[in-house]
Amino acid sequence: MRDAHDVLKRPIFTEKATYLKETGGKLIVEVDRKANKIEIKKAFEEVFKVKVDKVATINVRGKKKRWGRSIGRTAAMKKAIITLKKGEKLDFIEGV
Predict the structure, then answer these.
(1) What CATH number is attached to the domain comprising 75?
(2) Which helix (H) or strand (E) holds 24?
(3) Does 96 reside within a domain?
(4) pLDDT digits over 4-55, tens only?
């Protein structure tokens, strides 16, 4: 198994992520594209010392972008929506 810090890349702060955190106790994180739900759950519990109830994953394809005559593509990524168990709480940004 990979190291927990290799599986979890970064938290995602969007309007939808903030809404899910406030209403449902769910957190959205960018993860390694090859990681499965079991690896994501173990890595999150190991790094943040919280109990995870459920993990849902989303594969996001890269978008086509143009720079003048050149056509490129943004990087694809994988997101995980992590549901914490009842009574668990986690703040990525504390004191802000």
Answers:
(1) 3.30.70.330
(2) helix 15-24
(3) no
(4) 889 999 999 999 999 998 888 899 999 999 999 999 999 999 999 999 999 9
